[in-house]
Amino acid sequence: MAELITIDDREDPRLDDFRDLSTADRRPDRPGGRGFVIAEGTVVVERLLKSRYPVRSLLGVERRFHELGGDLDVVDVPGYVTSAETMADVVGFHLNRGILAVADRPVPPPTVEEVVDGARVLAVLEGVGDHENLGSLFRNAAALGVDGVLLGAGCSDPLYRRSVRVSMGHVLRVPFATIGSWPGDLELLRERGFRIAALTPRADSVSLRQLRDQTPEKVALMLGAEGPGLTEAAIAAADVAVRIPMPEGVDSLNVATAGAIAFYETRPPLS
To answer: 3-state DSSP call for residue 47?
Structure first.
């Protein structure tokens, strides 16, 4: 059970895990830094507490700790209770959500094989470097029955604080792994029975609905960066190029929106 401790001093060293979150070169959630996972707000903190990520501590105002209630029973860590003003001084900005939790990353991280095994629908991403797009893709994946996410070349870190926040904490529950050799290691998916579908607006691609009607047993949906989309090498490594039909004069969608449509069209029935 979390031990609640009142702290009023912004310089208290026990708060160092949360310090200066707005300072780019000191951010504790950067992979090159301490590599922490940071959750903001009661909903996301609750999901972190229930995840496989080892929680280190919490920081928040008293009201937010009360909102978490019994969820605090699952962790034996300190919960630092402070004022909104002190909290803002520590983190470097006013936090409207009123509570943070910090956790370590799992060691070792999941492998591609672990994410693929038992999956029916996968999202495979290339060049998605925008943290908000990445977080939105994870949120859509969780909502629409995607079993896992594989990160190819040029993708940002899903555990960056903004991605965790935008995903509403679903990045903490949707399994993901990084593909080592891109796009060569996509062959692993084909060996496991996946049909690899590359989403692209180019004219010689087939309609997404045609892919759905062919009902492949397993499908891996590849999505590229906002703007440039998938590289030619990635499209060439796929089994089929697929497009979302749109009226003339409209040739693209936000990558998270395109992902949501593709996830919905290819997912197995949900109860």
So the answer is: helix
